[in-house]
Write a structure and sequence with these properties.
Elements (H helix, E strand, L loop, with lengths): L4 E4 L3 E7 L4 H5 L7 E3 L2 H10 L5 E6 L1 H11 L4 E8 L2 H12 L2 E8 L4 E7 L5 E6 L21 E5 L6 H13 L3 E5 L3 H6 L1 H7 L6 E5 H8 L3 H9 L4 E5 L5 E5 L2 E5 L12 H14 L4 H15 L9 H15 L1
Parallel strand pairs: 1-5, 1-9, 2-7, 3-8, 5-6, 9-10, 10-11, 11-12
Antiparallel strand pairs: 2-4, 7-8, 12-13, 13-14
Helix pairs in contact: 3-10, 8-9, 10-11, 11-12
Length: about 325
């Protein structure tokens, strides 16, 4: 019987904007490739300045993307987050329900979080993110009943800045018997919260996802050595190494998973979808190697489209390719 996955993270609505002229980034004072946190006024000015540009809107946030990918593969999922009592918050909730996700969403009068993501011709992303109501999720919202009936708990690394929330969430998950997985999210977040992350990795986390930069920020080591160091403190460690694929270490054994051939248009969601694929494999009792290959399959597909969401025709192709991996 397939396992069920519960996620927690910043509930954001992503607005993906294709940029042919990079001067708009200079105009908006957004360094190319950066993730800038902005207040509601600046977010509104970004929205006004880009109204005439083509855009795609979807429920987003790192953990929400991963949970969405799992749901599209048929895994029973739920998501804990916080939105505003507004049209944007309603959109986020409706988008999750349409995907088959159970939304455990709290709300307030604060405007919902929005992430404007600019994608340049080279596929690089630049974010202007207004967290809004998303950051109002707190430890006081969490109860043991939210965790009952699930097998895996997936945490977005951006939440490490809310220590009380994360510690209570992990404690409740452990009490309910869930395996806990975390994606380290961003190298600058890792640098800022290294001591706290090391505390979490001392017996509180079962599975860690990191990319090359994040693993180096945590350990100061190159990918292979970083993988070994992280794996000393958890059951399963995954270090994604871009065009070289990914490295996985589980209970002392190591795998190098190759990427699938792909034409990158936009790298948004690649790490999130890798986690979806890997957790799908684990939830369905597949081998670590099979889980890694499914992670690679989803990551390679999502970089060929704009944004972190793929249409049904692509998901149908993915499900067919899944059968080959699973057999």
């Amino acid at each position: 019987m397939a396992k069920k996955v519960l996620g927690i993270g910043n509930a954001l609505v992503d607005i993906m904007i294709k940029v042919d002229d990079e001067s708009i980034l200079t105009q908006l004072q957004l360094p190319k490739g950066s993730m800038q946190l902005v207040d509601s006024l600046r977010s509104a000015s970004v929205d006004i300045a880009t109204k005439k540009l083509a855009r795609i809107m979807s429920s987003g946030g790192s953990a929400a993307n991963t949970i969405h990918g799992l749901a599209r593969l048929g895994v029973e999922t739920a998501f804990i987050g916080h939105v505003g009592a507004d049209v944007t918050g309603d959109f986020f909730k409706d988008d999750m329900i349409k995907a088959g996700i159970s939304p455990f969403l709290f709300s307030s009068a604060t405007a919902s979080g929005i992430a404007h993501a600019f994608v340049t011709a080279d596929g690089e992303r630049t974010f202007a993110t207004c967290l809004g109501a998303a950051i109002e999720l707190s430890d006081t919202h969490l109860e043991e009943m939210l965790f009952k009936g699930y097998d895996y708990f997936y945490i977005e690394g951006y939440l490490v800045q809310n220590k009380a929330l994360l510690l209570k969430a992990i404690d409740l998950a452990a009490k309910a018997g869930l395996k806990v997985a975390i994606d380290l999210a961003s190298f600058n977040v890792v640098e800022d919260q290294k001591d706290f992350l090391n505390e979490l990795l001392n017996g509180k986390i079962d599975m860690v996802f990191a990319n090359e930069e994040e693993s180096k920020a945590l350990t100061g080591l190159a990918p292979e050595a970083a993988l070994d160091r992280i794996a000393e403190h958890c059951e399963t460690a995954i270090v994604k190494i871009g065009k070289e694929g990914s490295l996985i270490k589980h209970q002392g054994e190591t795998w190098h998973i190759k990427p699938i051939p792909a034409k990158a248009i936009d790298t948004t969601g690649a790490g999130d979808m890798y986690a979806s694929g890997f957790l799908y494999g684990i939830a369905n009792g597949l081998s670590i190697e099979q889980a890694g290959r499914i992670g690679s399959l989803l990551a390679g597909n999502v970089i060929e489209v704009m944004g972190a969401k793929m249409d049904e025709s692509r998901w149908q192709q993915i499900r067919l390719q899944l059968q080959t991996i699973m057999s």
